[in-house]
Amino acid sequence: MQRIPALSCQIQHLLSSLTNASSPVSLQRGRCLLQKRNLAVPNGRMRFSTSPLLFKKKDKTKNISSSSPDPRPPKAGLVSDDPYDLAQLHDGIAAAVSRLKDDLSKLRVGGRLNTDAIESLRVQLSKGGKETVKLGELAQVVPKGGRMVTLLASEEDYIKPITSAVVSSDLSLTPQPDAHNSLQLNIPIPPPTKESRDQTVSVAKAAMEKATAAVRDSRGSVHRRLQDMQKKKIARPDDVRKAQEQMEKVTEKGQREVRDLFEAAKKAMERA
């Protein structure tokens, strides 16, 4: 511990002699003396002459921000600048037609009842409760010929709420308990009458009108987009006009498909 101050004094003395040296020979002699001196600090510590310089800490955040991608997600739902892009209209028509097919499949066509109409009924398990469950999750619906449907409940406690759901629906069905199986309900399918046919046609027409309105709404959205593009001079007037003509043709085709689906279902109902 006492050698360090002495060593420091020797270094200062040598540096002072070097500074005051007036000739190159004296300067060279002083350098040689420095090299001969053992300037190592006791206990094997690093020499003063080889100590690393202190550098400024690197800014890690700068490297990370420059190498990593932009964390902000790209904007979604951007409107296309192409006036001929009618994808929004095509998607709207496809969704409306698909929904109409699903609604018509649940109706009694040709005197038969699609089991999907029963499976999709909502069942209220607890009295006074608001939570409902699809009937298909509580019981298995098995068609028995063209005039009978059997319900096989997973638990006996489901029989009463299932019966209430079927009776209160607009299917005009009356479940009957099976004499040999307490988990089974037998639902006879009555033959269609003129009144039941008219009611079914009325429901189908309402579904058709709903699909027609959906197609019309999709057309309106595209029309407003084209008008906005012309107003903001994003597209040329000729391109907007041609795009509108294509839009009208696609809309007319979609409306015709909706009407054809309804007419086909209506004919099948009237033949029953």
Automatic annotation (TrEMBL):
<dbReference type="InterPro" id="IPR023584">
    <property type="entry name" value="Ribosome_recyc_fac_dom"/>
</dbReference>
<feature type="region of interest" description="Disordered">
    <location>
        <begin position="213"/>
        <end position="254"/>
    </location>
</feature>
<dbReference type="InterPro" id="IPR002661">
    <property type="entry name" value="Ribosome_recyc_fac"/>
</dbReference>
<feature type="region of interest" description="Disordered">
    <location>
        <begin position="59"/>
        <end position="81"/>
    </location>
</feature>
<dbReference type="Pfam" id="PF01765">
    <property type="entry name" value="RRF"/>
</dbReference>
<dbReference type="InterPro" id="IPR036191">
    <property type="entry name" value="RRF_sf"/>
</dbReference>
<protein>
    <submittedName>
        <fullName>Ribosome recycling factor</fullName>
    </submittedName>
</protein>
<feature type="domain" description="Ribosome recycling factor">
    <location>
        <begin position="100"/>
        <end position="268"/>
    </location>
</feature>
<feature type="compositionally biased region" description="Basic and acidic residues">
    <location>
        <begin position="216"/>
        <end position="254"/>
    </location>
</feature>
<dbReference type="GO" id="GO:0006412">
    <property type="term" value="P:translation"/>
</dbReference>
<dbReference type="GO" id="GO:0043023">
    <property type="term" value="F:ribosomal large subunit binding"/>
</dbReference>
<keyword id="KW-0648">Protein biosynthesis</keyword>
<comment type="similarity">
    <text>Belongs to the RRF family.</text>
</comment>
<comment type="function">
    <text>Necessary for protein synthesis in mitochondria. Functions as a ribosome recycling factor in mitochondria.</text>
</comment>
<dbReference type="GO" id="GO:0005739">
    <property type="term" value="C:mitochondrion"/>
</dbReference>
